[in-house]
Amino acid sequence: MTSKNPEEEHPSVTLFRQYLRIRTVQPKPDYGAAVAFLEERACQLGLSCQKVEVAPGYVVTVLTWPGTNPTLSSILLNSHTDVVPVFKEYWSHDPFEAFKDSEGYIYARGAQDMKCISIQYLEAVRRLKVEGHQFPRTIHMTFVPDEEVGGHQGMELFVQRPEFQALRAGFALDEGLANPTDAFTVFYSERSPWWVRVTSTGRPGHGSRFIEDTAAEKLHKVVSSILAFREKEWQRLQSNPHLKEGAVTSVNLTKLEGGVAYNVVPATMSASFDFRVAPDVGLKAFEEQLQSWCQAAGEGVTFEFVQKWTQPQVTPTDDSNPWWAAFSRVCKDMNLTVEPEIHTVATDSRYLRAVGVPALGFSPMNRTPVLLHDHDERLHEAVFLRGVDIYTRLLPALASVPALPSES
Ligand SMILES: CSCC[C@H](NC=O)C(=O)O
Ligand SMILES: [Zn+2]
Ligand SMILES: [Zn+2]
């Protein structure tokens, strides 16, 4: 499939590269250009296109391929339109040029996360339509803004809208991660992001003195407790080959703030942590643990949440789940090895699962290093095209899942 001559490039790859050139980069994404691109695709594919403005300037675009049996719930193919910022000086090629090297690697921000998937959905639907197929279940493709900064102006609002209810989603596919091996990773749950800011207050004074009860010394205690917990979780992961990264709780100290001058002991200091809480952790007890670390550090140490997800859900990965059965059957038929895991990252799937829509996170990229959010994010065109093939098999199976007990 790799073509050396640009004139011979596969049209799906050309479309992918066009989409990559749209600068939907945080913190000021050009969402207008992305929506216009998607409207044009809808027009080309003969699909209806609905635009739902969930907040001023934040549009969810929904392309719909109606099924033959409108009483059945639908398949939702989700992707986000925004991408994370770049450090341009570390890239081998302009991250918004979608440069393709002589081997077929396409370099661009969004090449893996997740503009590839948006185009793969569109191209799989196009192929199936051209071949004259029709399926019982409706297929909706949702293109949402704001995922990279938490989805608060995107999927979080969209799932609460009547337009979302009207889609009657029964099952969703959303983003996963590349896998450097021959296998494909599929995510059935994810960890809950808890962003916690610990503030310590204490006695101020001259920097030359042995002041007691300082903000810094108490903050240091909390930091030590939390980093000791981090080490414990890391060791638990290291010592058990059956545990994958998403199954343990991670934490990183990501910000330290405070202080005004070398010789002034500050009255307040803060430390910020990015916790990712594993889905089997009791959240109430975990919050109590945070509380007790702060209390043990002394008087005047408090914490607040900047992000706090409390509704982790698990999509079953056994044949009791007809959607999983259909998904895994296709993978088996195509000889794809799938590795079910818990996502380490927070994606929009959490909002879908929380409103009762089972979801799998799947980015069909094997033999590909995980380069999301990294310099030189890239994808080989052959892997991209293979992904279109995979969706071309998955969509008929998912959109033909017979009526569930709840649907008859
Ligand atoms: C917690 S809201 C931020 C969501 C973000 N998602 C993708 O990277 C993440 O940091 O996981
Ligand atoms: Zn993403
Ligand atoms: Zn991302």
Automatic annotation (TrEMBL):
Pfam families hit by this protein: M20_dimer, Peptidase_M20
Catalytic reactions of this protein: N-acetyl-L-glutamine + H2O = L-glutamine + acetate; an N-acyl-L-amino acid + H2O = an L-alpha-amino acid + a carboxylate; N-acetyl-L-methionine + H2O = L-methionine + acetate
PROSITE patterns referenced in this protein's UniProt entry, alphabetically: ARGE_DAPE_CPG2_1, ARGE_DAPE_CPG2_2
Limits of the Peptidase M20 dimerisation domain: 189-298
Key word Cytoplasm present: yes
Gene3D superfamilies in UniProt: 1.10.150.900, 3.30.70.360, Zn peptidases
GO biological process, alphabetically ordered: amino acid metabolic process
UniProt subunit comment: Homodimer. Interacts with SPHK1.
Protein name: Aminoacylase-1
